[in-house]
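1st attempt posting a full record on here, be nice pls
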Amino acid sequence: MVQRILYATVGVLAALGVIAAGVSPKASPVRPTESKFTWSRNDTSIALLNDKRVVWRHVHDRRIGKPYIRFGLLDGTELTRPWPIPKGYSRSDHVWHRALWWSWKAIDGVNFWEKNQQGTDPIKVKVTTNKDGSARILMTISYHLPDKPPIATEERLIEVGPPDANGSYLIRWRAKFTPAGKKNVVFNRNSYGGFALRLAAEFCGDPKAGKPAWTFSRSEEPKTNKGRHRWMAYSGVAQNGKPAGVAIFDHPDNPRHPALWQTRSHYPYLNPSFTCKKDYTLPPGKSLILTYGVLVHDGKVTSDKLERAWKKFATPAN
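the predicted structure (as tokens):
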């Protein structure tokens, strides 16, 4: 299984032309021979370090609920907004946004988005790491109200691929939801919710300071946020002064594919909203499986290359 995913990851990055053709001549991507990958690990988190600089960190602390990933580039430049939000951070709105995370807006009419933060517990976690910087995180997550039995459970598999020669890597996220009891579970309609990404506040840009905002790109015509898209991306110049970006891929096996999306530019946010238009009712004994990909690219990348990368992601591994 891990080997198949790693092959798929290599295929996605190869589809980007290893991204080298799009990197600015001023950029100096970290090459594999220059990388010094190590792991920082404890009971509540796992982090990939490159020469002591954090590339990404997954947090699975049952005391705070809602596991999440903060990620960035090989030189330590973070692309997601930090969580917990540091004191004095320029964008401290929506404190429940946790970098890259999953949260239903409401289950059976109960708000799991802003509230019930500790009602999404990782009750089992198994982490496998590799020397090439790839990792496999398998979790069982319980959805419940405080001190109440679970409403639903989730089997979540996150596979982070090895960074390529330019520091780009793929995060593959697969979730299987199942009712915990003998009644239907309803994931309620809402315009936003589900798989969500909150990027660093700095990407809003500061025209007065000569810092242009990052821009969205999309798979489908018309190029608006109102339609269905197989993928969406957000890219620009990172805090290190070099081009970078993030793309989210919606897998064709997902129900309701292509996804409807929610985006925000005044606080950088990207969300394929599964229940954007209607409820999803899950009967007991049945499961809902959703798969997404997150491509972190260090360097410029064109829409054509992202399209090829999505096709590689969407193609079953042999």
